[in-house]
Structure to design on (186 residues):
């Protein structure tokens, strides 16, 4: 199965705002950029991913991906529009703040979705959704936000749940940032 990847990335002064007590604006932007580049590079190395799209307000020309303009309608509306524009082909949405993501993590998610029609990767707390793979064109409403995993599962109870460290670990809080920095030193 051939997949199209979408990496939503919140650019600008509000990026990683929950880290504002720990990092200043330029540090948060640099961190977000570093993580987004790593996710795009990872996806670019997955054989079954034919195309990678960055969903963001501004293009990043040197990056190895296509750009989908985020028009400010909110993440869920932007993803729905992007999926419709791409023709409801097999799509994987992977958030840009997964610094430990590996090609094997992505392959597991895509293989599971290929079998069941859909697969979700929960965050490290088991409440949020860090990645979604939709293998079929069935209707689906993105519900990222508070307790998104439960909302997504309500729509696709048949979806596989893929809990892997690289898919589950996102950097949202000062604790997450410290944990990632500690892992990077090992």
């Amino acid at each position: 199965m051939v997949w199209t990847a979408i990496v939503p990335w919140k650019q600008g002064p509000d990026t990683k705002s929950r880290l504002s007590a720990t990092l200043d604006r330029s540090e948060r932007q640099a961190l977000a950029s570093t993580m987004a580049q790593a996710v795009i590079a990872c996806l670019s190395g997955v054989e079954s991913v034919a195309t990678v799209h960055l969903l963001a307000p501004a293009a990043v020309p040197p990056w190895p991906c296509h750009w989908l303009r985020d028009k400010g309608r909110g993440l869920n509306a932007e993803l729905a529009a992007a999926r419709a524009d791409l023709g409801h082909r097999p799509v994987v949405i992977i958030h840009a703040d997964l610094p430990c993501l590996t090609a094997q993590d992505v392959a597991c998610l895509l293989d599971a979705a290929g079998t069941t029609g859909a697969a979700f990767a929960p965050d490290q707390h088991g409440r949020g959704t860090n990645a979604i793979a939709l293998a079929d064109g069935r209707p689906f409403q993105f519900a990222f936000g508070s307790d998104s995993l439960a909302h997504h599962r309500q729509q696709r109870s048949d979806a596989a749940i893929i809990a892997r460290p690289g898919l589950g670990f996102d950097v949202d809080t000062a604790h997450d940032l410290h944990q990632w920095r500690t892992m990077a030193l090992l």
Observations:
- Residues 82 and 125 are 28 Å apart (CA to CA).
- The mean pLDDT is 93.
- The first helix runs from residue 25 to 44.
